[in-house]
Amino acid sequence: MSSGTVRSGSSYKAPLRGALVIGGDSEAALVERLVRVQTEARTGCVPEATAPAEADLRAPERLAIDYGTPAELIESLGKALRAMAMGQPAVWKVLRAQGIFRGSGPGRKVAFLYTGQGSQYLNMLRALHRAEPILADTFAEADRIMKPFLGGRSLTEFMFVEGADPEVTARAEEDLAQIAITQPAVIASDIAVTRLLAAYGIQPDMVMGHSVGEYGALVASGSLSFEEALEVVSARSREAEGLSLETGTMAAIFAPLDEIERELKKISGYVVIANVNSYHQAVVGGNSEAVKQAIEAFLKAGYDAVPLPVSNAFHTSIVSPYCEPLRRLLQRVHLKRPNLPVISNVNGEFYPTGPDAISEMLELLTKQVASPVQFVKGLLTLYDAGARVFVETGPKKALQGFAEDVLGGRGDVVSIFTNHPKFGDLVAFNQALCGLYAAGLGNLGNNVMAAA
Known about the structure:
By secondary structure, the chain is α/β, with parallel strands linked by helices. It is built from 19 helices and twelve strands. It folds into three domains: about 20-105, Alpha-Beta Plaits (2-Layer Sandwich), CATH 3.30.70.3290; about 110-245 and about 315-420, Malonyl-Coenzyme A Acyl Carrier Protein, domain 2; about 250-305, Alpha-Beta Plaits (2-Layer Sandwich).
């Protein structure tokens, strides 16, 4: 067994596939160990899929590699050694996409970013659901909670589809796109991944959600129970469908923020920035005809503009009639002060924790559905509070991309996604785990190092 693996008998949770984690007191020591592992791998001696040694996770210099086969490991070891020889930090950023992660120094504070509506897809997390009891238990809990709201059907019946029949798939995609199903499905996925990360000793120091993902962040912070969060998003979606609202829609615009703001001023009719996502991407929302004009204007200006499959223009004044019914709904749940810092989408700042915290939180959550999502400001607030590792906790990697765009140029930030259909559930999660191991996190939990 390679010296990069944990001692036999460790009680720590092992990765779901190969994860080589090695540490050293210096870069030279790290290179020496890399060469040793490479030599052993070429002779057929590949490390077992076991949890990393504490000494490696807490070493001053670290490297972690995700792999599925011996050949993949050998190839990645060669890339890592070449990168070590080059001594250029930018190279490691490229290698992250290939499951190769480099880290040094003490573990840093971690912010979990909770995915919202729009990132869902059929069979999301299904492979992890089959392989990992923590996910199976979480989705079973979600099924039990949601059955009364879904006509006796399980939530996972809408999420997971057998076979590849085009008609069955098309109907399933339509069902999953319904707000009453989408939102609880996304929240259940967000919390399932959170619980799985916790089993590896990785917990957030602070959290932020995107749109409905804010309810996932509130669960992680202890402000809402998992059951109450699912009930709230399910009930609020039914309330929204029952209201008589002006027809609106939304579109994703891929352009600099200042350019988006300038172009919208030229549009006749009501259209505004609904999601301030990053410096180069935002979602606009408003009256359907005005949004259509905006899409045409941005396309003509040479930017990408994509209509979104939504039932209305959320986070705009069009849905403001929904705020009061939402307030009454929230007053019936047991909202608590957060146990860890959680960002509000309304102002991009942390929720209050003082004596009037509950009433102030209620006010912010009431406004949230009709207020622009201040995601950029939220990312900056998290950074100013010390977060340096940003983990998208849920399906796909939109939020990881936003974090990379806003903070990636600072040099001390690592942004990680935990799931994506392009990579597959097991590979994507294991690569995230390797990224966190390289950041000095895991096993005993990140708070040990972050507090040092």
